[in-house]
Model the fold of this input.
Amino acid sequence: MFYSLRSVLLVNDNEVERNQLAGALRKAIDCTVLEADSPAQALEILAEEDVSILLTNLFPPDNAGLQLLQDTAKLNAQVVVMVGVPATDRQMALEVLKCGAFFSLNMPYCQEEVIIAASRALQFHDLMTKGEVRGRKLRKSDGFHGIIGQSTRMRKLFGYIEKLASEGDTSVLILGESGTGKELVARAIHAHGPRSQKNFVPVNCAAIPEDLLESELFGYVKGAFTGANQAKMGRVQYADGGTLFLDEIGDMKPALQAKLLRVLQEKEYEPVGGIKPVPVDVRILAATHRDLEKAVAEGAFREDLYYRLNVIPLRIPPLRERRDDIPLLIERFITIFNRKKKQGFHGFEHNALEALLRYPWPGNVRELENLIQRMAIFFPGQKVALDDLPEKYRPADYQTAPQEETDASGPAVVLDDNGIDFNRVVNHFENQLIQQALDLTAGNKREAARLLNLKRTTLIEKLKRKNLLLTGETDF
Done:
């Protein structure tokens, strides 16, 4: 899921460099990273998104990056702008600072330098916007702090978040199925409360191996074990003064549950290998899709920890219980996935949309997001009809429309005096065949290649060339 409250917009026409820099920032800093390949595209994003930091190239020879700096200031004076300048051009570095840039950075970029500069710029932005709703006013379609929804259930949820946020110390247990956006809710509670100027530290207890989770949470002292050549700060300490979000806490083992209970009860912890307790002031938000009451009854989860965490339970409704929000979500995802495309995806025809409204969505918002991304890739410049949807999204009693008569050379195409776009028709047909093969094989590229009578390497090359490497595909 996306929509972190802090975001960095990278403007760079070098796609490889931009993607590498974006990946480094996403890994190092708690923020959303947006990308644009030109000042014009950057302005479109700035008009739509709540951007915190803008990092742009100069775009010689006309230095359109300078004009972007000035246009950004007019559009949203709270955006902190950094400009990349050739390392040898000291005069231009001075010029961009005179024009209002927060930093000038040497080009070619050093990733470590950009990460440090972006971190400091975000701190400055946080101070500058303290107590305010950042950037532009949230639109109706934005929901609440990036959580999309206007249904009755979601409006009630937003009200609960506001009330819980004001209680800066109370633990909250966020309950909901996978894909409902539990981390987004936790971030909203943090951002709306008195701890918002301190760190929000997320930890996925299911994603970190059991033997590493303790040191990740509590850190360790020098010499605690072989290879511990220096002390390491844990996530609990990093969240001091702020919020620690423990996702999938139902997967945490009993030994760690006891140490977490001490943080909640005594406001202190011991690093791995340490003998002296370390005081800590942290609010703990926890989330799970598991039935913790059942886990307590079975002895898999500590009862005392459960009641400490479950001071205020907050349940996120699954998507099937707020179907009125589906069109809003679809509109939002289409806007996002169309941003870098020459031919934007035009959405769904009425019968396809009706089918999506009736679908039970076991994967919730994340599943809907993945579907929109997939449709945007396969159907650029088009509207998706019911026939175009993957089979599981169609009604159980739906019969696919009869196919046009075909021969050994493929489907019949009728030419008229206006002619056709040959490449587009061929490309569309090829995409459909690849999609069908991946659907039939649950994303298994080896089996899909066999169905298409292609070499596996040939299929992979086609997928790369068409940018069709979709979430959920496998090699085996």
Notes: The chain has three domains: 7-128, 141-317, 323-401+410-465. Residues 7-128 form a domain with the Rossmann fold fold (CATH 3.40.50.2300). The longest strand covers residues 80-86. The radius of gyration is 25 Å.
